[in-house]
Design brief:
With 194 residues, this protein is mostly helical. The chain has a single domain (4-188), classed as Four Helix Bundle (Hemerythrin (Met), subunit A) (Up-down Bundle). The chain has helices spanning 7-31, 36-63, 69-93, 97-121, 131-153, 156-188. The relative contact order is 0.13.
Length: 194
């Protein structure tokens, strides 16, 4: 069973590798417009597989009692890398405000919350992932999958659907970021770093 316990961390690592692959496919699509649709569909397929690992790594870790400090640290980093890869890759191919603004808000929040968690460590404060934050990640992954599929199929309706989902994800992202900021403020009120 000990070999099985490594699988959740391997899935998390695979998510990072797939995210890098998605970015490279999109970067190549930006260089080779004739191959854009095919590369975008490959990027979409790789991203969907990466998104599925986000569910299965945690599920397997809990089921097999295989949670580890390494997995706990790597999982949110892998999520951020995956989102960053797609947002930047899509903007390389087709820069547009409908993607750039919600993408920026999402990435801004991710860096902001990471900073809060890092600062919280100095106070021995943990900011655990909330249920709404997990839902936010799911909506982000779905929205970005739809954006990739829309690019690959050259579908305006799918692009609109992806944009709407991305704005919903951005709103949830900002809301959860504000929740973390309030929790951090309350937890550190009157305390000095250790």
């Amino acid at each position: 069973m000990s070999g099985l316990k490594a699988i959740p961390n391997l899935l998390t690592g695979a998510r990072i590798v797939l995210a890098v692959g998605v970015f490279l496919l999109l970067a190549e699509a930006g260089r080779e417009p004739a191959a854009l649709r095919g590369l975008a569909l490959w990027a979409c397929a790789a991203f969907v597989v990466a998104a599925l690992t986000d569910y299965f790594d945690g599920w397997l870790a809990r089921r097999w009692n295989a949670q580890s400090p390494w997995g706990t640290a790597l999982d949110p980093i892998a999520d951020k890398i995956a989102v960053l890869a797609v947002v930047l890759g899509l903007l390389l191919v087709r820069p547009r405000l409908g993607l750039a603004i919600p993408g920026f808000l999402i990435l801004f929040r991710e860096m902001f919350v990471s900073g809060l968690r890092e600062a919280g460590a100095g106070y021995s404060i943990k900011l655990p992932v909330t249920w709404l934050a997990k839902c936010k990640t799911t909506v982000q992954l779905i929205a970005l999958s739809v954006e990739l599929l829309a690019l690959g199929l050259a579908s305006s309706p799918l692009t609109l659907a992806g944009d709407v989902l991305l704005w919903i994800a951005a709103a949830a992202t900002l809301w959860t970021g504000a929740q973390y900021a309030v929790a951090f403020s309350r937890a550190t009120a009157g305390r000095t770093p250790q």
